[in-house]
Write a structure and sequence with these properties.
Helix content is 41%, strand content 18%. The chain is of the alpha/beta class and 314 residues long. The model is unreliable at 1-5 and 7-12 (pLDDT under 50).
Length: 314
């Protein structure tokens, strides 16, 4: 029922029992203190996952602090900010069948990674499971959760949860085989809504995505963020993804709605200009989704227009 809260039944504390099926990739930039807290939580999980940290060009001593405090962590100290491509770098260092992504201001609830691995093992064509997101402090559900739970997307009847058209990287566990098959995250998109393009390509390749409320991710949003850049890049990436993969009329409708509803300010203008500047690349790379994959995005169009959790504000 819409508006209900997913609260899995309490379970006893999990005993430490390593699960070699799943590893964790964390990307970070200029958030040393928050990353160290996140790593303490990850390394205390009963699954005892192998953890890869990709430091995206931090200048605040993040890499040195990780080396000193957590020598067991696999650290990649990039000299530049790779954005979401840092996840591609992290995945390339792994051979586990499943990879959980984690941001430096999120953490997985104990037992969730094992549950995700069990579900992915039981469903060989399932590429992504996305968790219930709890906002801290306070433990309330993120506003995006009802949209995940009540997803209008139709997927395979064997799915263990509601089918999704896209996913949230920092709250998802992915099948590494599927991630590699579609080439990981797009270098051109960098960061900000980069999941949508991958989700479309996964669906086109016959993979399924779903929401799984038995998984929980906690999110305590960092105050260290460039909200204007995130909004600018999000606008650009939404338009690029739309024109890279959607048929003509759906692309026109989504573009018109976006332009009509965006704030009228400098950040929006910069995002729109960046999208236009990338038009030659988009036209060269345009590859319209097959009907079964486009149907997923079409099902989401109305929900996205009504959404209060997907607004371009900063």
């Amino acid at each position: 029922m819409r508006g209900t809260v997913d609260r899995p039944a309490p379970r006893p504390a999990a005993e430490p029992r390593p699960d070699p099926r799943v590893a964790v990739v964390v990307i970070t930039h200029e958030r040393r203190a928050e990353l160290l807290v996140a790593l303490e939580r990850l390394l205390a999980l009963p699954e005892q996952p192998h953890v890869v940290v990709v430091d995206n060009g931090s200048t605040d001593g993040t890499a040195d602090a990780v080396r000193e405090r957590f020598p067991q962590v696999d650290l990649v100290a990039s000299p530049e900010n790779l954005g979401a491509i840092g996840r591609n770098v992290g995945v390339a260092r792994l051979d586990t069948p499943y990879v959980a992504f984690c941001d430096d201001d999120t953490w997985w609830e104990p037992g969730s990674l094992r549950t995700a691995a069990d579900v992915l093992t039981a469903h060989p064509r399932l590429a992504v499971v996305t968790a219930r997101i709890v906002v801290e402090p306070g433990g309330r559900e993120d506003p995006i959760v009802p949209e995940l739970r009540d997803s209008p997307v139709r997927g395979a009847d064997w799915l263990p949860g509601p089918a999704l058209g896209s996913f949230l990287a920092g709250a998802s566990v992915l099948r590494r085989e599927a991630f590699v098959e579609v080439g990981g995250f797009s270098e051109r998109l960098w960061l900000g809504g980069e999941e949508e393009l991958m989700a479309g390509d996964l669906a086109a390749a016959g993979w399924e995505l779903c929401y799984l409320p038995a998984l929980t991710v906690h999110h305590q949003a960092s105050r260290v963020r460039d909200a204007h850049r995130r909004r600018r890049d999000g606008i650009r990436n939404t338009l690029w993804t739309t024109w890279l993969r959607r048929p003509l009329w759906p692309a026109l409708r989504r573009t018109a709605h976006l332009v009509r509803t965006l704030p009228r300010d400098r950040v929006t203008a910069e995002g729109l200009l960046a999208a236009v500047r990338g038009a030659p690349w988009v036209l060269r790379e345009r590859r319209v989704l097959p009907p079964h994959a486009e149907a997923r995005f079409a099902a989401l169009d109305a929900a996205q227009r009504r959404s209060t959790a997907r607004r371009y504000v900063s």
